[in-house]
Write a structure and sequence with these properties.
Number of helices: 10
Number of strands: 0
Largest sheet: none
Helix content: over 70%
Structural class: mainly alpha
Distance between the termini: 49 Å
């Protein structure tokens, strides 16, 4: 039922109310990681950064912020809500095992868009085994778009 509400336009309030009800009925209906990540998607759709921060706090308190699935949902929610710093903190605070190439590339793109060149180079340099063609091209484009033309050329020459 929650999934149906959260996926249907006009039923966002019903979805949030159902989640609250599920939480209040702890023994009868468990709020799990799947429900919370769906709620992250709904929160991003609504653009409610305040509700997103409350949801993130709840996920931390209940230990539902650890998996790559959860971290990806949080980062996506924050980026879609225009909260770059919160997205970066969610990414930066997760364990390395939770990061996959898609999540890493999403944060690299966001850093480039925000002009955080030093930050993006640090992310790119860590966990190099997760760098793929998208990572390299994003870095090159990010450097070029932010006025670091020489760095872009050097990085392009360094592609293997």
């Amino acid at each position: 039922m929650f999934l149906g509400y959260s996926n249907s336009a006009g039923y966002e309030t019903k979805a949030t109310n159902l989640l609250k009800k599920m939480h209040s009925m702890r023994h009868e209906a468990r709020v799990d990681e799947f429900s919370l990540t769906r709620m992250c998607n709904l929160t991003a759709k609504l653009g409610s950064s305040w509700y997103g921060k409350q949801l993130h706090s709840f996920m931390v308190k209940t230990g539902n912020d650890i998996s790559g699935f959860a971290v990806s949902a949080l980062v996506d929610m924050y980026l879609k809500s225009g909260c770059f710093d919160e997205a970066y903190n969610a990414f930066n605070g997760c364990s390395y095992g939770s990061v996959d190439v898609v999540l890493k590339n999403a944060v690299v793109v966001a850093c480039c868009r925000e002009g955080k060149v030093d930050m993006v180079m640090e992310i790119f340099s860590n966990q190099t085994w997760l760098n793929d063609v998208v990572s390299w091209n994003t870095m090159i484009a990010g450097y070029a778009q932010n006025g670091y033309d020489k760095n872009a050329i050097e990085l392009a020459r360094g592609m293997k």
